[in-house]
Design brief:
The complex is a heterotrimer of chains A (264), B (294) and C (391).
Chain A (H helix, E strand, L loop, with lengths): L7 E6 L5 H7 L5 H7 L1 E4 L12 E7 L5 H13 E7 H6 L11 H8 L23 E3 L6 H12 L11 H8 L4 H5 L15 H4 L16 H10 L4 H8 L7 H16 L1
Parallel strand pairs in A: 1-2, 1-3, 3-4, 4-5
Chain B lengths: L2 E3 L5 E3 L13 E10 L4 E7 L14 E6 L3 E6 L10 E6 L3 H7 L6 E8 L12 E7 L3 H13 L7 E7 L8 H9 L3 E7 L9 E2 L16 E6 L2 H13 L7 E4 L15 E2 L2 E2 L6 E3 H4 L9
Parallel strand pairs in B: 9-10, 9-13, 10-11, 11-12, 13-14
Antiparallel strand pairs in B: 1-2, 3-4, 3-8, 4-7, 5-6, 5-8, 14-17, 15-16
Chain C lengths: L10 E5 L3 H10 L3 E8 L2 E6 L10 E6 L2 E6 L16 H4 L3 E10 L2 E6 L7 E6 L1 H15 L6 H7 L3 E5 L10 H4 L11 E8 L2 E8 L2 H7 L5 E2 L2 H17 L9 H6 L6 H8 L5 H5 L6 E7 L5 E8 L9 E2 L2 E2 L4 H20 L9 H4 L7 H11 L16
Parallel strand pairs in C: 2-8, 8-9, 9-10
Antiparallel strand pairs in C: 1-11, 1-12, 2-3, 4-5, 6-7, 6-14, 10-11, 13-14, 15-16
Helix pairs in contact in C: 9-11
Classes of the chains: A alpha/beta (264), B alpha/beta (294), C alpha+beta (391).
């Protein structure tokens, strides 16, 4: 890394709720350090000042849902040396990917008075479906410590410490009680990517899978266990149809259970 | 050394007996010289101000090299064991840490933990023929053994080096190879997988060089280092020619993190590659070597 | 206090009403006392100041993937089976900072972490967990290097064992010859006895340090009747144990069947979530992470628990050596029941059953071992593990 010039950071938004960008603003204590380490060149959510590209690091939030998005993300890629997709929308398609399981034109005609003005794609897809992504930071929303870690890793040329193993490993490391074993609460933790610090189990809730599938998920085996806990197929489908519904492992399990549910 | 009586009289020692007083703590070493070997491989010479004598090491051993703030990786020592005051490492830039290490300049500092692991069987080989077979960057951990073989040339019978690189531009220690080739009593053969224009040498896999050298299968020690698949075929060839598994040595690579058998990452069957290896007698790991996903 | 000579093996009696005094003595002697307590629906190990923190009136029911705490009207302090915690949490903590470094000019300065951990006294440790500590001693202190972090924490511990009065449904220590009676690695070992209105402990002395603590609280010599009451408790526990793992030629069984279709079957159920390795009291694997501040002026290395069920564990040149769930489960089970013997001269399994209870899908290592024995075959009576290359 050239130590004389501060790297230029850009933050881009596609289809999303802006929650992940807020994680950057929520850094509070560290925000000044971030501003000291990088030149925040493009961040409409935080500042109107715009510095032109190219950018050393682009954080991309949101999914691709319109023909315009498809073109714009290509521009972003061209302008960025290093592109990091942040959050469930950018890495999996987000909650809006629920449309992928239905006919989007039906929604458009039901919701909008003048559907002819709406130009949308049939599916909500992650950034990596359209351009090369250098790194994906998971979460809905992303965890601010992990964001800081990614920034720090980028600045110093190292691999970010954002382990892709299960949430269970985090639970055990922080000393949470396993809610599934000790209380029979259905939990997606065993198939979910770590990163949140095992937040929900710490409050006696099952994991909702906000960080998407872990590295080698086995949702089929987990669903069977959920079945033994008395969870019906429909509920299982709903569990996988969350913020990461379109992530491959979750999508496939949801579809498989939907089929079984329809047959039963 | 404090010894405590364990419950029921078991004696336990709570302090390190190894050569490193603080095995987890990298020692600062200053980069004295760097040399670009190939398009992606660099040789570094390091020295420690706090340890002017350097680190005594044996041919085949490795160190954990730490780039400040980036991370640590195992790298074999490629210098001369007779000159330990200069620590020599040859590093191929393949990941973030090796890239950071390859990018150092004279005056920069790296952290060093080691040396760790087992050695090439230079003592066992006394009085025997020795065939050294290297693939790609695998020549680096064998170079200290070659230095020692050359120094005590008369204590060994025939000595041969077979070296295979991917392409001519991937050949390591090119000038030194030329010098070794001219040495009397050392049979050096080099081959490349893919020849490019201007290459007048051998083309093909390194095992194809074996028929070019003479050795007595009943009194030969073979030392092999390279990609696992290359080592597998090399071992098979020597076994076919009657060299017993006990006389074939290979150097293994796994995800070493601590270097001293605590982290568990480098296990191969019952062995910790960091401390039971990296140099193994082939007969020792035969059961576990080359098995898928072992 | 005058009384019987307190030597290793001596048995005395302490009334349950003196347990608080006992805890107080340990604190007074500078120990940080850790014992069982109920939290969040499970029995965990935590700081223990008062007998009222102990799980009196609680027991548990455990099966594969199931743990349920049950209220009883009993008075016993230690009528519960082991929870997810073991001493590993204290002696080999989940996250440890190894050192810090600061940039200085073109170089840097490292500072090793030397913070003195508390001097722990553990109350209520079961026999299986004592064997686990002995196993960790071999891993971390018996070779050329001693792990400084482990050695610092382990060196001065005081251990009060409790002989199990109940076998859990996932326990199999009898078959592993690691329990239910504590036989090694304790300073004092208690057997809790309730006879009508009387509630007392038969205390076995394990070390001079243990005797010294005992001398500061009221005790009396154990009668033959009291001693045999203690023996009956232990015998009853052993008799209750349903699960067993046959260790005959277990090492050969595992080494000889690495490609058996059996592994594919278990891989279908395995979540590769790593829970078994986290709760296992002997699993010791760790990973390091190197971190920096944003400015790149300070760096540190942390070591945290890792699991052979993760992809990164066997990472090499851009991929994982053990990419499949099959290979990871095989590695774990083969390590526990075969490689440990070669590496440390002991099995890596102490029969505590935690991996069965806390596996979210209830994979049972005893059933897996049985299935492999039924289906697999042993080719050689004994595997010769060759000698290592000269170090």
């Amino acid at each position: 890394m050239d130590r004389r010039r501060k790297p230029k950071l850009a933050v881009w938004k596609f289809s999303s709720c802006s929650g992940c960008q807020l994680a950057l603003l929520n850094l509070e204590d560290e925000l000044l350090q971030v501003a000291g380490a990088v030149d925040i060149a493009y961040f409409p959510e935080a500042s109107r000042a715009v510095a032109k590209g190219p950018y050393d690091l682009s954080l991309v939030e949101g999914s691709i849902t319109t023909p315009h998005d498809v073109e714009r993300i290509k521009d972003v890629r061209r302008e960025s040396k290093y592109l990091v997709a942040v959050g469930a929308c950018a890495t999996a398609g987000g909650i809006q990917a629920l449309r992928n399981f239905k006919d989007v034109n039906e929604f458009v005609s039901t919701v909008y008075a003048s559907p002819e003005y709406i130009e949308t794609l049939a599916k909500s897809t992650p950034i990596a479906d359209h351009v090369l992504v250098d790194f994906e930071l998971r979460g809905c929303p992303i965890n601010k410590r992990q964001l800081l870690e990614v920034l720090s890793a980028f600045l110093h040329g190292r691999r970010p410490n954002t382990p892709p193993h299960s949430v269970c490993v985090e639970c055990k490391q922080v000393g949470n009680t396993c809610v599934m074993v000790a209380q029979g609460i259905p939990c997606l933790g065993p198939v979910t990517h770590a990163g949140c610090g095992a937040l929900c189990p710490a409050y006696n809730r099952g994991c909702y899978g906000c960080f998407g599938p872990m590295e080698t998920p086995n949702p089929e085996a987990l669903s069977e266990q959920w079945g033994r806990l008395g969870v019906g197929e429909e509920e299982i489908v709903r569990a996988y149809r969350g913020f990461n519904a379109n992530a491959e492992a979750f999508r496939k399990e949801g579809e498989a259970r939907e089929k079984q549910d329809a047959q039963s | 050394m404090p010894v405590r009586e364990d419950k029921r009289g078991q004696e336990r020692v709570w302090e390190t007996r190894g050569s490193l007083p603080e095995p987890m703590l990298p020692l600062p070493f200053t980069v004295r010289k760097t040399r670009k070997e190939t398009h992606d491989t660099y040789t570094l010479e390091l020295q420690s101000e706090s340890r002017p004598g350097g680190l005594a090491f044996a041919a085949g051993q490795f160190n954990m090299l730490y780039a400040f703030g980036v991370g640590e990786v195992p790298v074999s020592i490629s210098g001369d064991p007779a000159a330990p005051e200069v620590l020599v490492h040859t590093v191929r830039a393949v990941g973030p840490v090796t890239r950071a290490i390859s990018g150092v300049k004279p005056g920069d500092m790296l952290g060093v933990r080691g040396p760790f692991g087992t050695r090439w069987p230079l003592e066992d080989a006394l009085g025997s023929d020795v065939v050294v077979v290297a693939g790609g960057i695998g020549l680096a951990p064998l170079r200290p053994a070659l230095y020692q073989l050359f120094r005590r040339r008369r204590d060994y019978k025939r000595v041969a080096l077979l070296y295979g690189a991917r392409s001519p531009r991937d050949i390591l220690y090119r000038r030194e190879l030329g010098r070794w080739d001219k040495r009397p009593g050392v049979d050096v053969h080099v081959t490349v997988d893919h020849a490019t224009e201007g290459w007048g040498g051998n083309e093909g896999v390194v095992t194809a060089l074996i028929p070019k050298v003479e050795f007595d299968p009943a009194a030969t020690v073979v030392m092999v280092c390279g990609p696992e698949i290359m080592m597998r075929f090399t071992v098979i060839e020597f076994q076919k020619r009657g060299v017993p598994s006990e006389k074939i040595y290979i150097s293994m690579e796994r995800n070493m993190q601590c270097g001293i058998g605590f982290c568990g990452h480098c296990q191969l069957g019952p062995y910790f590659v960091c401390k039971d290896g990296p140099v193994f007698r082939f007969g020792t790991i035969e059961t576990f070597f080359g098995r898928r996903e072992m | 206090m005058p009384g019987p000579a307190l030597e290793p093996g001596t048995q005395v009696v302490m009334e349950s009403s003196d347990l608080q005094k006992f805890i107080d003595v340990l604190w007074r002697k500078g120990y940080h006392v850790v014992g069982p307590t109920v939290r969040n629906g499970v029995v965990v190990y935590d700081e223990l100041k008062s007998v009222t923190d102990l799980p009196a009136g609680w027991t548990d029911e455990q099966e594969g993937a199931t743990y349920r705490l049950k209220k009883t009207d009993g008075k016993a302090f230690f009528a519960y089976g082991i929870g997810p915690d073991s001493l590993k949490k204290f002696l080999h903590p989940p996250v440890v900072r190894l050192w810090r470094a600061r940039r200085e000019g073109a170089g840097f300065q490292t500072v090793e972490e030397t913070e003195e951990p508390p001097k722990y006294a553990f109350l209520g440790v079961r026999a299986c967990d004592l064997h686990a500590v002995a196993a960790h001693d071999r891993v971390f202190t018996s070779e050329e290097y001693a792990d400084p972090s482990y050695a610092r924490r382990r060196r001065d511990i005081f251990v009060v064992a409790v002989n199990c009065a109940k076998a859990g449904n996932t326990c199999f220590c009898v078959s592993m010859r690691t329990g239910p009676k504590a036989t090694v690695g304790f300073d004092l070992a208690l057997t809790e006895i309730l006879e009508g209105e009387r509630h007392y402990f038969v205390v076995e002395v394990g070390s001079e340090t243990g005797a010294a603590v005992l001398r500061e609280i009221p005790f009396k010599e154990a009668t033959a009747a009291e001693k045999s009451a203690a023996e009956r408790v232990i015998a009853a526990t052993a008799g209750q144990m349903r699960k067993a793992l046959d260790t005959t030629n277990i090492r050969e069984l595992l080494y000889d069947n690495p490609e058996h279709p059996f592994w594919d079957e278990v891989a279908e159920r395995c979540l590769t979530c790593g829970n078994c390795t986290m709760v296992c009291p002997t699993c010791f694997c760790t990973a390091v992470e190197d971190v920096t501040d944003l400015a790149g002026e300070t760096a540190e290395r942390r070591r945290h628990w890792d699991s052979c069920f993760t992809e990164d564990f066997s990472y090499l040149h851009g991929g994982s050596v053990r990419a499949s769930a099959k290979a990871r489960y095989r590695q774990w089970m083969t390590h526990k029941l075969a490689a440990w013997l070669d590496q440390f001269g002991t099995l890596g399994c102490v029969g505590c059953g935690r991996c069965i209870t806390w596996c979210p899908v209830g994979i049972d290592i005893t059933e897996q071992a049985r299935a492999l024995r039924d289906k697999g075959r042993i080719e050689r009576p004994s595997v010769t593990v060759g000698e290592h290359a000269s170090p």
